[in-house]
Structures are given as structure tokens and as C-alpha cells.
Amino acid sequence: MTVRHSPNSSESFSMASASFEQLVSSPASERDAAFKAMPLQSRLYESAVTDLFWETLMDLLPDGVVVMTRSLKLIQMNLKAKELCQKMAGSKDSDPGLPSVLAETCQRLTRQPLSETRPLIVECQASPGLTVRIRASWFSFKPNRNLATFPNHRQIILLLLKDCNEILHEELRLEQQKYDLTDREAEIWALLRQEHTYQEIAQILQISLNTVKTHVKNVYAKKRSFQGFEKVVVL
To answer: Which pTM was predicted?
Structure first.
């Protein structure tokens, strides 16, 4: 359980912050000794500041991050992971819980031989517009003062969640800029990247099949032109 404590005044806040900054910049042995010598109130505040820093850092990450114990107890989940779990569960609940596919992936990881160090990678299509890539791996750590609930060396499960559709959209945006594609060319190229046939693209965009073929031909011409330019620059 994380204990949070706020200072009673701006003066105590400044003193605690200065103390924390001094501890961070000190060698590990001095940090541990200084921490043990701190009053309990300062220890709690320093620990709370550290926890808040890591929670904020995790929430800034573009990928979903889920941290679990070996017994599948949830330790931490960042904002992106909560968003993806909501979409996977088809729920707007602020605490959607752990989708079954994540629990099953963790269980598969725990059944692997201990000698197997490679991460377990799974892709699941949670809905027609959402494909999530799950990367599950073991993460070992040594306990410190901020992990008092883990008295021994432990292994935790680290899940990284990627929205494949977001990745594709970002790649397409970069390709449009790189090859100077028009909006229509980029739109058709995006559908082509999603493995739609020419006929399906024509139906989706309500344009003729010949128009689709012309735009695709233009896209490939621009890509070849750019690649040729790159070779000339390299030479």
C-alpha cells in the first residue's frame, strides 16, 4: 500500500524537496544511510514524491504499461493501458479491470520454462477497429525502501501494450509527408496497407476502379522517384 503525506506548510515542502534532491544526487550508500536517519514524516514524504515521479513518468509513455505479480495481482497500470483496457472490454468504466486476453498471456508466460528469457508477443483483435500487440516479459528487481512489500528478490510481469492501428496511422502520416502524397493518395494508400483490394477501396470511397488504379500508380511512382533520389544523394 502506498502511503502519501503532504507537508503542512510551504516551508516544510521546500525543506523536504531540497532533502530529496540532495538524496538523489548522493551515492547509493550515502542515500540509504541518510534515508534511515530521516524522521518518519520526511521518509514518508520522500517516498511519496518518488512514487509520484514514477507514476507521472509512466503516464507520459505512449504505450500501455501494466505491471503484475507472478500470482497475477495488479501492481500498476498507466493511463494508456487503462484506455486500451477500456476499449478491449468495451467499457467506459474508469477501472475496467484486466481483460481476459492479458490474464491469459500472463498465464502462458508463467508456464514457460524458467530458462526461456524471450518475451511472449501476442496480437489480438479486440474489435474491428482495434488490434493490440501485447509484449509480456519477466522483470527482476532487488527490493529497496520504496518496495517494502516485496521483502525478497522477486520477479514481476511487465506487459507493454501497443495499439497497432495507431502505429499504422502514424506510419501513414510520415509516408504522406515523405513521399508528398495528396490526401486522396494517402487515403487510398492507407486502405491498401490494410490489405483491401482495389475493388473494395473503390466501394469504400465510392469512386471508380480506374480512379483507384490511377492513384495507386501515382503513389508507386512517387515512392520510386524518392528512392531513386536517395540513391543519387548517397552516391
So the answer is: 0.57
